[in-house]
Write a structure and sequence with these properties.
By secondary structure, the protein is mainly β. The chain is elongated and about 80 Å long. About 5% of the residues lie in helices and about 55% in strands. It has one helix spanning about 1-20, and strands spanning about 30-45, 45-50, 55-60, 65, 85-95, 100-110, 115-125, 135-145, 150-170, 185-195, 200-205, 215-230, 235-250, 260-275. A hairpin with a 4-residue loop joins strand 5 and strand 6.
């Protein structure tokens, strides 16, 4: 009787294990996800070339910074969502660890004003134009970035439209978490590439700015982060991202001959909220 009791208990335990429902978070294949959030950037210095019919000059080691909005209702106000610096991404898990997706990193880039930088090239505008005050040949001479000489921003968006692949790994068991349907801790990594589609705000030598979106170049980036999923479907995603941007065709004025070009690296910190689900 004692042996039969032990045998029955063993069978019952195995049946419970076999029949236990699988957690929703045990597998990712076939799920979709979307997230939305904010970011901050740091930019490397860059050499920026400006050229047109009557000028061609390069500014060296130009500094820049982002333009944070801070904590604001604009992040969730549909009429003002493009004012802050934001991240949007939509993806699909092709297996339990890898997803493919498309995203928009809406960053902002502002050239630092009122500092001296080196200039090389020439300016030879007609005498009746305001920018003619800066006419001359520049041979690695310092110039101060005053507003009458140049303002240069990608503040209606240093828009990086990108696609790529990312990986996710459940780290919960190493933190003692057993029910991942309540809370799950994941490590994430991703690599992305795409185009830059900014609306550049530039005033070059007093000329009227070109105020339309324009495909200006390409970018690549890589990120690593932490995804904290709650109650199976909701998550917070934080990440550090680094990237390279090459903008070789920036529109600056309504004269089609006026262009700028630059390339630089950036470092981004982001935090987003999102959801994951099956259709």
């Amino acid at each position: 009787m004692f042996i039969f009791s032990i045998f029955s208990h063993s069978i019952f335990s195995q049946e419970n294990t076999v029949n236990a429902p699988e957690r929703y978070t045990a597998h990712n294949k076939g799920k979709f996800f979307i997230y939305w959030g904010g970011n901050r950037e740091s930019y490397s210095r860059s050499d920026i070339n400006f050229k047109g019919d009557d000028y061609n000059f390069t500014l060296y080691d130009v500094g820049a910074h982002d333009k944070p909005k801070g904590w604001s209702i604009d992040y969730v106000n549909p009429a003002r969502m493009t004012i802050p610096q934001t991240n949007l991404r939509i993806g699909y898990y092709i297996n339990d660890h890898y997803s493919i997706g498309i995203g928009l990193d809406h960053m902002k880039y502002v050239m630092t004003q009122f500092v001296p930088v080196r200039a090389n090239g020439y300016i030879n505008l007609p005498a009746d134009q305001a920018g003619a005050a800066h006419n001359g040949n520049y041979n690695n001479v310092p110039v101060v970035l005053t507003e009458d000489f140049l303002t240069f921003e990608h503040t209606d968006g240093l828009n990086f439209i990108n696609t790529g692949i990312s990986r996710i790994d459940d780290f919960s068991k190493y933190l003692g978490i057993t029910n991942t349907d309540i809370i799950q801790i994941n490590l994430t990594e991703g690599i992305y590439g795409g185009i830059l589609y900014p609306k550049t705000n530039a005033m070059v030598l007093g000329k009227e700015r070109h105020d339309n979106f324009h495909i200006s170049g390409f970018g690549i980036s890589a990120e690593a982060g932490i995804n904290i999923t709650f109650l199976k479907h909701y998550f917070i995603h934080t990440a550090l991202k680094t990237g390279y941007i090459d903008m070789n065709d920036i529109r600056t004025t309504y004269n089609g001959a006026d262009r700028a070009s630059q390339h630089f690296t950036y470092f981004q910190r982001m935090i987003s909220v999102g959801g994951v689900f099956r259709l």
